[in-house]
Specification:
Blueprint (H helix, E strand, L loop, with lengths): L3 E2 H8 L4 E5 L7 E2 L1 E5 L11 E5 L8 H9 L4 E5 L3 H14 L2 E5 L5 H13 L17 H15 L2 E6 L4 E4 L10 H9 L4 H9 L2 H7 L4 E3 L10 E8 L2 E9 L9 H16 L3 H20 L4 H8 L8 E7 L7 H19 L4 E5 L2 E6 L8 H19 L3 E5 L9 H16 L7 E3 L4 H15 L6 H13 L3 H10 L4 H8 L3 H15 L6 H10 L5
Helix pairs in contact: 1-10, 2-3, 5-9, 5-12, 9-12, 10-11, 12-13, 14-15, 17-18, 17-19, 18-19
Length: about 525
């Protein structure tokens, strides 16, 4: 039995059952058998075996890992009682040279054993699909991609395979000026032969085969053809299809060609495998990437899966919506994720995306040494500007520090999160920032978070002041904070509040009388400037 590559087994079992913790020998190690190791039995294994270490939790699984390594087994699966156990077991698995899988606590061992045996039994079927069965192109995601490209280019988009069969297309409105070529292609699900003959005559297809970038096809009103841009979709030297953008009632955007470069790379990933293989591979990549960002999975697993160099510089970018303006949050995130993926792929071929809750993280691996920080800022600003201009979605973006390698990704992500947290608290901050841009805002934000979580650190007099405002619908706390922010300049603070200076003086005196505060004392002023910034 040749076995099933560990990569394929993980993609088939999926995140709901197991997670990869370590793969020191890579993900192409063949799994040929599955065995159950009872806690009462001495630890044994066979070459190519997946060992299900039942009942061996934490350090109790170390003998099973060592025995599996000596026997050249493929992997050991264990259940973990807590996150602290994973580090010791990952280290032992790496030393033993055997893959380590963690099994979800609620997963029944007999269910996992049965599923694995079923997958292994289909690993040698003649069509090479590992029993997964055939699948068609991943056209569902292509429709989303076509719509994203339409937004970024201002045009009307269709995506076709190498036989000019239409795989996906963007939505059109009543005001869009669709030409005959587009209309007939959609209705017939394939470009009409007379038009295709003209494109061949003009050398369009030969230019596409030889060009990495987008090419322009001039308008031909006599044939009912409007101006177009086109770009080939390819995987290496292999052509996979073409993206066409027809100019409608308005000119295409200035960045249309750049957007097409990114879209072609995204589309290649969706066409290069069959639907099931692609879906499983994407899930595995997302699982490994999310685990790396969170620090729960080591860097080697993702590096092995994607062929990345763990020692090359890497940066994490983080995006979050500044507001949804009443739009459906899930729809907005899907639109933003699509836009970010296209823009980022246009700038960095190996960029990886991971949506986590309301944020979208971009991992930029294998950056060239000495890449200027201004370049990363320009890339990020382009994406934020595009979201605002094309989707009417305001974004904030944080640029994590460029770190030496994949092992340092959690630190870059953590700093990007710190920046976004501070930007989310308001104030005058840019929509794209690195730590040096908002150092003070980040530190003040973290002090405020501490005060928010620790009520015992707050001054009860200031708490009483905000409570008084809430009961009596007054604005004493707001007036005190404005007065302190203006360094005691009454006229400046009054102008900021749009009130008379005498009104401000009265409010400050009234706040001191009600609470016993003495704003002439530096310590009380400092604490008031912080505590009065807490959300109600």
């Amino acid at each position: 039995m040749t076995g099933l590559p560990l990569r394929q087994l993980l993609m088939s079992l999926g995140e709901p059952l197991v997670e990869l913790q370590a793969a020191p020998a890579g993900l192409d190690v063949p799994v040929r058998h599955v065995s159950i190791l009872d806690p009462e039995d001495p630890p044994t294994a066979a070459p190519g075996e997946l060992v299900l270490a039942i009942g061996a939790r934490g350090r109790a699984a170390l003998p099973a890992l060592r025995a599996a390594g000596r026997a050249r087994a493929a992997a050991v699966a264990v259940k973990l009682d807590g996150p602290g156990q994973a580090d010791a077991l990952r280290e032992a698995a790496t030393e033993a040279g055997v893959a380590l899988l963690s099994v979800r606590r609620e997963t029944r061992w007999e269910h996992l054993d049965s599923l694995t045996r079923t997958l292994l039994s289909g690993a040698d079927d003649p069509d090479g699909t590992g029993g997964a069965g055939p699948g068609g192109p991943a056209t569902g995601d292509l429709f989303s991609l076509a719509q994203t490209v339409a937004v970024l280019t201002g045009g009307i988009v269709s995506i076709e395979d190498t036989s000019s069969r239409v795989l996906a297309y963007s939505r059109t409105s009543e005001t869009d000026e669709v030409d005959d070529l587009r209309r007939l292609s959609i209705l017939g699900r394939q470009g009409p032969e007379p038009y295709l003959a003209k494109l061949r005559e003009w050398g369009v297809f030969s230019h596409l085969r030889g060009s990495e970038g987008a090419i322009e096809i001039a308008a031909h009103p006599e044939l009912g053809i409007r101006r177009r841009l086109a770009i080939a979709i390819r995987s290496g030297a292999q052509p996979l299809g073409t993206i066409w953008v027809q100019e409608g009632s308005r000119p295409l955007t200035d960045t249309a060609e750049q957007a097409l470069v990114g879209a072609a790379r995204v589309a290649a990933g969706q066409l290069v495998r069959r639907r099931r293989e692609l879906s499983a591979d994407t899930r595995l990549t997302q699982t490994l990437l999310t685990g790396l960002l969170e620090g729960s999975t080591g860097p080697q697993s993702l590096a092995t899966h994607l062929g990345l160099d763990v020692r090359r510089p890497v940066t994490v970018l983080a995006y979050a919506p500044a507001a949804t303006d009443g739009r459906d949050a899930e729809l907005s995130r899907d639109e933003v994720t699509g836009l970010i993926s296209v823009h980022t792929a246009a700038r960095h071929r190996g960029a990886l995306l991971a949506p986590v809750d309301s944020r979208v993280y971009v991992l930029l691996p294998e950056l060239p040494p000495g890449l200027p920080p201004a370049t990363l800022r320009d890339w990020t600003q382009e994406t934020v500007d595009a979201a605002r201009d094309h989707l009417s979605i305001p974004l904030r973006a944080a640029i994590g520090p460029t770190v030496p390698g994949l092992a340092d990704v959690p630190a870059s992500r953590a700093q990007a999160d710190r920046i976004l947290d501070a930007m989310g608290r308001g104030g005058v901050v840019p929509d794209v920032a690195a730590l040096q841009d908002v150092q003070a805002e980040v530190l003040v934000s973290e002090v405020l978070a501490l005060l928010q979580d620790r009520p015992e650190l707050r001054d009860p007099r200031l708490t009483a002041l905000t409570a008084y405002d809430a009961r009596h619908h007054t604005r004493l706390a707001e007036s005190v904070l404005a007065y302190l922010d203006a360094l005691g300049e009454v006229r400046t603070a009054a102008e900021a509040l749009h009130i008379h200076p005498n009104t401000l003086r009265y409010r400050v005196r009234r706040a001191e009388q009600l609470t016993g505060l003495d704003l002439a004392q530096p310590q009380q002023r400092l604490l008031a400037m912080l505590q009065l910034r807490l959300p109600d």
